[in-house]
Write a structure and sequence with these properties.
Elements: E1 4-9, H1 11-15, E2 28-29, E3 32-33, H2 34-37, H3 40-45, H4 47-61, H5 68-83, E4 88-93, H6 99-102, E5 108-110, E6 113-120, E7 126-128, E8 147-151, H7 161-170, E9 173-177, H8 189-195, E10 199-204, E11 216-219, H9 222-236
Parallel strand pairs: 1-4, 1-9, 4-5, 9-10, 10-11
Antiparallel strand pairs: 2-3, 6-7, 6-8
Length: 241
Amino acid sequence: MYKHIVVLTGAGISAESGIPVFRSETGLWEQERVEDVATYDGYMRDKNKVHEFYNKMRRSIKTKVPNPAHLALTRLQQEYTKKSPGSTVTIVTQNIDDLHEKAKSENVIHMHGELNSIWCEHCDARYKYYEDSSTETKCNLCGSKKLRPDIVWFGEMPYRMNEIEKALYECDLFMSIGTSGVVYPAAGFCQLARSVGATCVEFNLEKSAVGSSFNYGIYGKASQTLPEFVEQLIENGEYKN
């Protein structure tokens, strides 16, 4: 049985729950230019626009629920680790929604931030936040009006990279679910895991941009393919493709 499993999830796993993928073929995100709502320059140009953009998204995820792929990962964490004492399942997500949390998964690393979090640029505090924000919203800790969405924008460093790299260097199974393979550093995780001998499996609708780096791929809807994969892991300690 595998001792240390690392799971990377991308927009594809949440798309089946009704959350649009980050960037469509039009280059837009939720009908807005990425440069306007996902860069610090865009934020400085129009803070109100950016706050309202994330307010809309924060409101929208309140009604979204986990799908069978999210639930399968929770089952993997709970049942596989129980059957294999000392084993770990770390979930690293590029998604800013809260579907892994709603599915009761634990040890989730949001490398690109969270919609339900706010960041004070004055005191550097980050805390859970579920309501609308604006340029007039005061920080709960220092009282300043310098709050921004706690989201990693283009040109900014993803969160908790040291923890992620440590987990990848220790893993013997790496699973990538619903990722395009074009956004770095996440697109390079497979190669890092393979460099230490981990088995790498891609779950996607079709082969990603880095699909050839994986040992094999399982293609189709993750809500269908992942529960079967997890079932075999729990029952047999391995998957026979």
